[in-house]
Amino acid sequence: MLTNNGHLHSGFAEPLLTYLKERQLHAPTLEQQLRESLTMPRLCAATFCGWLEELYRLDPVPAFGLRLGATVEPRHFGVLGYLMLSCGNLGQGLTRYRRFHSLMQTGLRSWVITDGDRLHLNWTQPVANSLRAHEYSVACFVTLYQQLIGRTAPPISASFPDPQPDERTDLYEAALGCPVYFNAPSLAVEIPARLMAMRISSSDPHLQRLLERQALAMLQEPETTQAEGTAFLDRLQAEVIKAMKDGDCSAETVAENLGYSLRSFYRRLSASGYSYRSLLADIRLRLAKYYLADPGLSPSEVALLLGYAEQSSFIRAFRIWMGITPGEYRERLAARGGQNRL
Question: Where are the domains of the chain?
């Protein structure tokens, strides 16, 4: 069953496009539809499930959705993925996952059951309710938590609400690395509770606070009012912030990470009324104000967080933006009680 009004984050279409190209499957119409979907903020769940079925007909391999889901990356989850990457440990990441999961899929309902040293993560997804979509969803979740902690940590078990397929179930168990059950009340993945304490190497408390604000704003925004351009800029801002942290926020790098050629990226920016130089400066200024409000961060640390190789470059840029140095800005901020707002 598929509802007609459910939506998924458009990033989930990218693994389908990659699979289509890598397997050299001839489906020009489907390829064009997938490419176009990546420029949109979200995609219709029924359409997505239709694409899964079409791909499966072109390449009917067992446990098809699990193969696709094993190729996802945190960035495919949009702002939620970047937020989870910035968390301190897996427990924090999964807490944000449950809090903001409607940003990746509408209608999803999840709950957690603790059973001694095990955690049962359960969910239903009425907007993408098919075997292939269920396979994809479970594999996405397993791949996500393993990428966050940087190690292969198989689930204890995985469950599907679907009847047992004709395909060999041992292929499901081999793909997920655990026993697999069918005809279950809901989708479920059981994992060791000890994984919750495992560190996420990309942890960044400052970035986490920024992305959590962004996720909250998106959560409160009515679905019908989020324009395509706004969604693109949200994705772009999250990618630029990550690129700053990695020390390379060039247009070439950001475009590639968003799945655009440099020419298409510039064209997309222009259509939104921006240039990359001005947008990067705007993001850096807003983040600079936010970071400078934290007395625990030195100017050199702020410069590094903003992607500057040298503190002097940051000071020059800040003086151009604000007419004062970062130190003078901090003095004024302290004089008015440290209040700052992005």
Answer: 7-197, 205-335
Question: CATH for 7-197?
Answer: 3.90.1520
CB 142 within 8 A of CB 189: yes
Rg of the chain in Å (alpha carbons) = 22
Q: How many helices (H) and strands (E) does the chain have?
A: 16, 7
Apex CA 41: angle with CA 35 and CA 42, to 5°? 80
Q: Are 60 and 30 in contact (CB under 8 A)?
A: no
Strand partners for 156: none
The 10s digit of each residue's pLDDT in 316-342 is: 999 988 889 999 999 988 887 655 544
To 5 degrees, how large is the angle CA 41–CA 77–CA 25? 80
205-335 CATH pick, 1.10.287.110, 3.40.190.10, 1.10.10.60, 3.40.50.1260:
1.10.10.60
- pTM, 2 dp: 0.72
End-to-end CA distance of the chain: give it in Å, rounded.
43
